[in-house]
Write a structure and sequence with these properties.
The complex is a heterodimer of chains A (about 375) and B (about 290).
Chain A: E1 22-31, E2 34-44, E3 49-53, H1 60-68, E4 75-80, E5 83-84, E6 95-98, H2 110-120, H3 125-138, H4 154-166, E7 172-176, H5 184-201, E8 204-209, H6 212-218, E9 221-226, E10 229-234, H7 236-241, H8 246-251, E11 257-259, H9 260-267, E12 272-274, E13 281-283, E14 293-306, E15 309-316, E16 321-327, H10 333-336, E17 343-349, E18 354-355
Parallel strand pairs in A: 3-8, 3-9, 6-7, 7-8
Antiparallel strand pairs in A: 1-2, 1-4, 4-5, 9-10, 11-12, 12-18, 13-17, 14-15, 14-17, 15-16
Chain B: H1 4-14, H2 16-45, E1 49-50, E2 57-58, H3 64-71, H4 73-107, H5 110-125, H6 128-139, H7 144-149, H8 161-186, H9 189-197, H10 202-231, H11 235-239, H12 246-256, H13 258-280
Helix pairs in contact in B: 3-4, 3-13, 4-8, 4-10, 5-8, 8-10, 9-10, 10-13, 12-13
The chains are: A alpha+beta (about 375), B mainly alpha (about 290).
Protein name (chain B): ABC transporter permease
Organism (chain B): Streptacidiphilus cavernicola
Subcellular location (chain B): Cell membrane
Chain lengths: ~375, ~290
């Protein structure tokens, strides 16, 4: 299996050493007996769109808050641009945050909100006005400068929060589930817009989300969090195509796991395996599988029509259950249902089989869970 | 055949105005008659006169009482003194309540927060007179205040304006703490975090974010402390020594010269109306 490449250590072979925008080493945060973050090492490169993906309670937001300075780690160090900031207060760090609830000051106008950071840093009035206007133009809110936050829609407030943070030109922008409160259509628009703004500003974005689609579409790299630890760090393709652990395979994309006897029968060797549903081809049981293919016979037990594609749930003869996706190129909704109960053969390229480790940081191919 | 109750319900359902009228006519009548009516009688009686010989009221329409109140230096001094005392009480309460409410809402743990809330609320159940006389005992010569202050070379301020200010501040303090407590409690943590995140040090966050957001609560509290002090007439009698406030001028005139008392009582009413009008522009009244 392919492992994700080791994170950049700054001193790469080409060019002078560039310190990571954010570096965490052994960072731990305990709330009483609960270890919300449990010894995390992470390097985020300058200019990168980096996502921290995980379910709620996995520690991703706590890590973000420790980078911002709202929480002090109980162990480990936080570095920004190579400088240790572990004990620095938020106002002494060169990062800005876009909060989940936007946290706009209700008593200030949109323009005053955007100017707040500059005013605090005693930027001269003329420059302040100019930069605030630029920031508002960048998020297309020039015409709303005089309004109060309460007079804006959710999407507009979100963009004010973004402008208020970006106007300070921080080295790192932290975003705490900023799209969570928006409806789906607006969220998709903002995903594209955020990515665009990040490219143009050239600022490192650290983006916290529990939405795997959001993480996959926007990020340069993703860290998958679970129970206070990082299960895998990699590009969206690496995380999706080659999940390192059972958790990653299940959380990012549809969980399609085979283990125990079923795995032994299909793959010839017991273990824990995952195959992405869209890689699986559904054929007639008499059609032979290709030479580079794995295959397993089974019965379709459920057919779920989902517009663009249909989801087939197949119980394997070997035991276990796999989900296969098929684009609805020719068939329409009325046709697909009749496949329920049919006997089929599932086939997929051998290289699309991913062997998993049940535990994080333990992905050696020889590892036998039994 | 539909039962009459159902028919009535149906009729009310189709006529929202009728429904509203049925709902609020009784309280509105009460408000108009008992509350506004009394105010109108007060205003009207201020234009009558007391016969100096018989002490009976002559129902002659004239403005002599108002002329007396406005021109006699006695009334002007009493009015200014009352205003000053009410302002001092409001200021003292605001200064004490601010850190108190902040601590209760944002620092104290839930358990001690509840205890503190009970501690603030309990005195409201105790009788006004009991509290005022308790202070009379404490402030009197050789009382607790003397005893505590003696080692520092001080003593009880005695009975006078300072005593009135102290006791009124004590009496109305909960009315300032409670709105401030609510305001601090409702202040989102993320706003304070955002301010720090944007580079503001704590003092800057306090001045730029906390103060403007709790200002309406301070004003709401001040409406209570100010108007209650303005109308008070018992505390000043108990611990005020010879001090006169508008309240006890009115109280002492009610039996002797009701029209004059009515004219005097228009003064605090006007002050409060003026205060409310000034305060309305800050938006604090929306938070009451």
């Amino acid at each position: 299996m392919t492992d994700s490449p080791p994170p950049s250590t700054g001193a790469s072979a080409a060019g002078p050493p560039v310190p990571s925008a954010v570096a965490l080493s052994g960072v731990t945060k305990a709330f009483g007996a609960v270890r919300a973050v449990d010894g995390i090492d992470l390097e985020i490169r300058a200019g990168e769109f980096f996502s921290m993906l995980g379910p709620s309670g996995s520690g991703k937001t706590t890590v973000l808050r420790m980078i911002a300075g709202f929480e002090e780690p109980t162990g480990g160090r936080v570095l920004l641009g190579g400088t240790d900031v572990t004990r620095l207060a938020p106002f002494d760090r060169d990062v800005n945050t876009v909060f989940q609830d936007y946290a706009l000051f209700p008593h200030l106008s949109v323009r005053q909100n955007v100017e707040y950071g500059l005013k605090v840093k005693r930027v001269p009035r003329a420059e302040r006005t100019r930069r605030a206007a630029e920031a508002l133009a960048a998020v297309r809110l020039e015409d709303f400068a005089a309004r109060r936050p309460a007079e804006l829609s959710g999407g507009q407030r979100q963009r004010v929060a973004l402008a208020r943070a970006l106007v300070n030109r921080p080295s790192v922008l932290l975003l705490d589930e900023p799209l969570g409160a928006l409806d789906l259509k607006l969220r998709l628009e903002m995903q594209i817009e955020l990515k665009q703004i990040q490219r143009e500003a050239g600022i490192t974005f650290v983006f916290v989300t529990h939405d795997q689609d959001e993480a996959l579409t926007m990020s340069d790299r993703i860290a998958v969090f679970n129970a206070g630890r990082i299960e895998q760090v990699g590009t969206p393709a690496e995380v999706y195509e080659h999940p390192a652990t059972e958790f990653v395979a299940g959380f990012v994309g549809t969980s399609n796991l085979l283990q125990g006897d079923a795995a032994a029968q299909v793959f010839g060797e017991p273990g824990l395996y995952s195959v992405r549903p869209e890689k699986i081809r559904i054929t007639h049981p008499d059609d032979p599988a290709g030479p580079d293919e794995c295959s397993a016979p089974g019965t379709i037990v459920e057919v779920v029509y989902a517009g663009a594609l249909t989801r087939f749930v197949v119980d394997l003869e070997a035991g276990g259950r796999l989900v296969a996706l098929r684009q609805n190129v020719e068939e329409s909704s009325t046709d697909v249902a009749r496949h329920r109960g049919s006997t089929v053969l599932l086939a997929w390229q051998r290289r699309h089989t991913v062997r998993l480790s049940a535990r994080p940081g333990n992905t050696t191919p020889n590892d036998n869970p039994q | 055949m539909t039962p009459p109750v159902r028919r009535l319900a149906g009729a009310l359902h189709r006529r929202p105005r009728l429904r509203l009228a049925a709902l609020i006519s009784a309280p509105m009548a009460w408000l108009a008659l008992a509350y506004l009516g009394a105010l109108v009688v007060l205003l009207v009686s201020a234009f009558w006169t007391t016969n100096e010989f018989t002490s009976n009221i002559d129902y002659l329409w004239n403005t002599d009482n108002f002329r007396t109140v406005l021109t006699d230096p006695l009334y002007r001094n009493v009015a200014l003194r009352t205003l000053g005392i009410a302002a001092a009480v409001t200021l003292i309460d605001a200064v004490i309540a601010f850190p108190m409410a902040f601590y209760m809402a944002r620092v104290a743990r839930p358990r001690s927060r509840r205890l503190l809330l009970v501690a603030v609320l309990t005195p409201l159940w105790a009788g006004y007179l009991v509290k005022a006389y308790a202070w009379w005992v404490m402030l009197s010569h050789g009382g607790v205040i003397d005893w505590i202050a003696a080692p520092f070379g001080g003593g009880s301020p005695g009975f006078g304006i300072p005593a009135v200010v102290i006791v009124l501040s004590y009496l109305w303090l909960p009315y300032m703490i409670l709105p401030l407590y609510t305001a601090f409690e409702q202040l989102p943590d993320s706003l304070l975090a955002a301010s720090g995140d944007l580079g503001a040090r704590p003092w800057r966050t306090f001045v730029g974010v906390v103060l403007p957001l709790v200002k309406p609560a301070v004003i709401a509290g001040s409406i209570f402390t100010f108007s209650l002090s303005l109308g008070d007439y018992l505390t000043v009698q108990i611990v005020g020594g010879t001090t006169q406030m508008l309240g006890n001028v009115i109280a002492s005139n009610v039996t002797l010269n009701l029209p004059l008392a009515a004219a005097v009582s228009c003064v605090p009413v006007l002050i409060i109306v003026g205060y409310l009008l000034a305060v309305r522009r800050t938006g604090a009244l929306d938070n009451l």
